[in-house]
Structure formats: structure tokens, C-alpha cells
Amino acid sequence: MLTIITPFYARQRDDYLYERMRRFVAQEPLVEGIHRLIVDFGSPQHVVDDLAAYCQAADIRLLSLGRRGEPFSAGACRNHGAQVASTEFIAFQDVDLTAPPSVYQRLARSLRLASPNFNHLECLPCLYLTPAGTLEYESMEPEAAKARFQEYFAEGDVERIQMYAPATSAIVLRRSFYLSMGGMRQEFFGHGYEDFELMNRLAWKARRFIRSHDYYSHDYKYGALEYRGYRSFFSLFGRQNMASGMFFCHLYHPTPALPGYAKRNAANRMLFERFVKALDTDLELPPALCDGASTQRTLALSGRNTIPMKSIRMAIAHLGNVVYMEPGDFADAQTFVSYVRENRFNRVLFLTPYGNEQRLALYHACKADGIPFLVFDRGALPGSWFFDPCGFNADSASYAPPKWNFPLSAEAKEAAERYIDALVSSEETLEENGDRIGAENLRAKYNLHGKKVLFVPMQRPGDSVIRHFAGHAESVENFCFVLSQLSLRLPPDWRVVVKRHPLETTMPPVPGAIELAPATHVYDALSACDAVLTVNSGVGLLSLLFGKPTYNFGSAFYCHAGLSTQVCGLEDIVNRVVELRAPSQEHVLRFVHYLTDVFYSFADTQCRKVNEGGATRNVAVNLDFTELRLPGQTPRTFLWRTEPARKNSPVYDFYREYIARMGKPVATPTKVAASKSATTRAPIKAAVPDVQKAGPASNVPAARRMPGTTARKLSKLIRDPRRFFVDAVRNRVG
Q: How would residue 702 be classed by pLDDT, with cut points 50, 70 and 90?
């Protein structure tokens, strides 16, 4: 169920961390369903040997990164631990954090009942104890100590509690979520802001709470009563756990005087600010972490930091150990084959193998040498993507009739019918289209009433399927020439209607044809037409779902008996089009069932338009998979939280006064006497102490910094959380 990962590094045996780890291994509870994993960064071998003996005695797993001499990175330890863990959930706990068995038991119970959402995220809050508080805590039985210090917190005890942090590095989430989001960035060194940067990414994707105002501000600490700054936002992920009694206590230790600490902390702060803003503006995320617990190895023929590889981050987490190489890294196909064999890769991952000649040569080498591969690209249905182990588009055996042409159960047939009905009545398409106006309005707009319409969706001249599978069409330009001849050869009641590809700004002229406005919705054109002719566009598949006779000039993956018909010349087109032979409804249902329930993966996709060589391209930058189908693996369905808790939810009650003031006019300042110059006094901002910088001598803990009413509410929240939320709802309704 859960693996708790603890990073560790000690320079020698007299390092205080050495004793803390001995205590941690010997005393921190182990409960059913929770496993512990300690990751040593690079301690001296004698320390590692000692730690190994302690862990073996306590039945705790230990891993060593062996990075002695390098600057310590807790993030590297956490990432490695997450990669090798085998449980559904992971959490992080430093050696200074402690809790009694009841906290771990409550955590295990909560995870058994946890939200099924893939992007579920929560924090375990922490009470930072003073030296006196630490001595008292360690002198007591753990359960009694937890209860006592929870009471001290509610009373605002400053002698024993140094500070309260509702959000810490002690996060709890699904392992696959952590891996897909890239884990902790390795650009940070020393202490400071790396936890905040990770939390920013995870909280952004978790969509659990409304984001706070002035989000980039560092000025608002955990004790601030205004819902402003990133810390206030992060705090909501832990406040409910504090109210339920699920928290850690941090045992005091002196802060080591590290050379260059202030300089490194300032540099980390700048990194944090840059990464947070890059996520907001460009959806910029680090590459996904691969699954180190898997015995499978995948060679990805692309850079790790490329947009396509980042976009499939959820899939990367399920492809085993992934190694990234560019096609240009190999001198020739034989060098590539030798590399794959020698390194015992289980598969090669291609992105559109026909994209360039180097990639295509390696793709053909895989086929010739029997090397397993996956081809990733976008499918022809809205939101669809595929990982094809047999090829790409028309050259793939994945679309052969034996894969899909068999009788369907009543349930499968009904599901396929529902899918088709939903699609043809929607506006969801692969590329951006204008609003739908309906088939009748489209016919009226272009004077098509009483006419038979042959709809021709145009394709991009440089597309891989045009360059490699155009067949008799040869090219878009030649296809347009054929269309101009076709308009002269069809019976007089026929009209050829063409639509430019949404991402193209021009197209070759087609004399005699009617050109639809670029914003015309393709579904209106499909509804209004009598037949569809294409080279091999994915619109041809949609045409089948609309029940239209469909003809393809080139090679198309949907060209099979009962579906689309391939034509090979002008005479062939004329003869076949006028027949108006509709596709087999049964075959269409079988093919749709196969695509939607067996072959395609589906994802909510975020795209960005980019210009390359004067052409516009829609690039997928983020795929939130709802269904992920990887060959040889059980299909995965992902549920997502998509909306945050509403503003009137009790989870925001710590900031209720501030939220209640939002949108209300500011009181007009009192006018001064006419004989004096009128001045407007700037509003006074209450000073909020920096709880993160509070040291051992601080005597202003979080609980006591608050006004009396707030302190009483907080005390009530700790004593009786159920009554607190019931009263909060009653007061708001009242």
C-alpha cells in the first residue's frame, strides 16, 4: 500500500544525524500495510555498514546511492526511492520526524479509503519542537506525547513548540503520479525551495483547492490569515490532517552553519520563481521519472527533454527503465541493432517513425531484425492516441480485420453506438474548427440544396501519411488537379466541396470546386455531404461514423471491406462515387469498438501552436490519460479530480474572513478638515512574523500569533474537528 522513503547522509559517527537515524530505525513504528525504505546518499562505508546492520535487524530496506563527495541532495534520495518502490502510494519522512503508531495506523486506514483520483495529494503537517519540547517528548510514551503536544499546540505553547508547518516535504501521493510529474528537480543544491517547487507542480495538477491570491509572493507565511502567497495555498493540503490528529513532530537539532548557505538559498529562491512562472506560462515540467522497480528496458528514440517525451509522462512511468537516444547518435542501422541487442532492451519507442529518414531507417531495421517496438502517435478520433507494436498507420497490422472483424456482444455494440452518437452530435475534433451551424444551414449557405455533395477534406502537403502513403494521389498538388478534373466528369447534379486543412493558410486551386470557409466545422460538412473522398485523412474514419460512403485515394488504415473503398484513378472515382454504397453499419461498429475499447488510449490534451519553417503545427505538450493501453500490459483507467473545492467549503475556513472580504469595496477614508491638505493614508498591513525563519529562541509560535478569536477557533479545530466544521457550515448558512 505505502512506502515511506527516508533520505539520509552522515559524514561520520559523531554526526547528530547518525544518532537520529539509529533512533529512527529502532523506535519509529512499523504497521501493517506500510513499508520503510531508507536511501543513503553517500555516507562513508563504515556508516553505511552500521546502518545496514540496524536496518536488517528492524526489517527495513536500505539502498545506497554511493555518491560520496557530492553535495547532499535529499531530492535525489527521494526520487530514487520512489523509482524502486513497489507500492501504490509513497510518502517522505525525514529522520527528525516522529509519530506514534496511531498516526501510521490512521494514515494506513485513510489510504485504504483514499480518493481513487490519480492526482490525489495530501501533506502530513509538522510541529517543530524546541529543545525543551524535544526533551519532554522523548521522555514520554509516544501516544501520550502525541496527545500532550497536540494540546500544547492548541494552547499556543511557545516553550515547547517552535513553529507549525501545515505543509512540509512529508507528502503522500500515488507513486505513478510522482513519477509522471518528474519528482524533485535536481537543479537545486543545498537547502531551500526544492520542496516548494515540487509542491507547486503537484498542487497544480491535483486541482484540489482554489489557488491563493498574489501567488508568487514570499511574504505570506503559514500563520498569515490572508489567503495570499503560495504557502497559504500549500497549507490547505495539510490543515485537515492536523485537525484529525495525523501529524509529525520534528525533534529539535541545531542548524548546521554551512558555508555559502545564504547565497545558495537565494539562488534556489530564484530557481523556484523561474520554474513556477514557466509552469504557468508554458506548462513547463521536468521529464518523467522511469520505473526503476521494473525489469523491462525501453530505448526511446528521442531526447528526454523533448516536448513529445514530456507529453507522454504518464506512459513513461509504465515503460520500465527508459534510456533516451537520438537517431543521430547511431552511425547506421547495424550500429543501432547491435546497441539494442548488447544492452538487452525489451523494446524501442518511436515517435512517428516516418518523421525523418534517420528515424525511418532505424524503424525498418527493427522490423527486419525482429526487434520489438512501439510507435506512439495521435489517433484519428478526438482525444485518442496509440502505442502500436505492429507499425504506423497504413503499414500496421494492428488494423487488419482479424484484429476487429468479429461479432460483438450486445453490450459492446451498444457502447459503440453510444460513442458514435455522442461524437456526431458534438463539436469535439482533432483540430480547431468553428462553431457548428448544422447541415441544412451549410447547404443553404453554399447553395447546395437539391445537389449531391462530394466532400473532400484536404491534408497537409508535408504530413507523413501524404509523403509515404499517398498512393495514386502522389501529392496534395496532384490530388487537387484530379479534383479539378473530377468536377467536370461527375453528373451535373454533383458538386465537389473542399475544405482546407485547419493548420494550412493556403491550398492549391481546385477549379470547379466549392471551397468552404476555413472556420467551417468539419462535422457540418460530413452531415451535409453524400460521400467523402480523401487521400488518407483521418476525416475518412469520421466519415464512416457519419455513415457516409467513403473513398480513399492513398493507403488508409481504415480501408477494409465494409468500410472505406480505395480508388485508383479518375474513372474509378467517377464510377464508384455515383454508386453511393454506404459502409456496413456492422463493420463500422466492430471497428469503432476495437479502436475505442481495445487499441486506442485516450487523454485530455493540452496543445500549443508552434511555427516551424513557416508552417504552423499543433504540438501536444501535456496528456492527462484517462485510458492508457500499452501492449502486453493490463489497460489502465485513470480518474482525475478536475475541479477544486468551492469557495464556500469549510476547508477554507482558516482564511474565511479574508475570503469574505473579497470583492467588497474598501471603506472611504474619513475626510480631513478643509484647512488641511487632504491626504489618503495607505492601508496598514498587519505584520506577520516569518514562521519559517523562527529559531529556537523564538517565543511567538504560530498558534499564539493569531488574534484571540482565531486562536480560539484553532483550539476548537484541534479539540473537536467534527464540531468545528459543523458549526462553520451552520454559521455560514445562517
A: very low
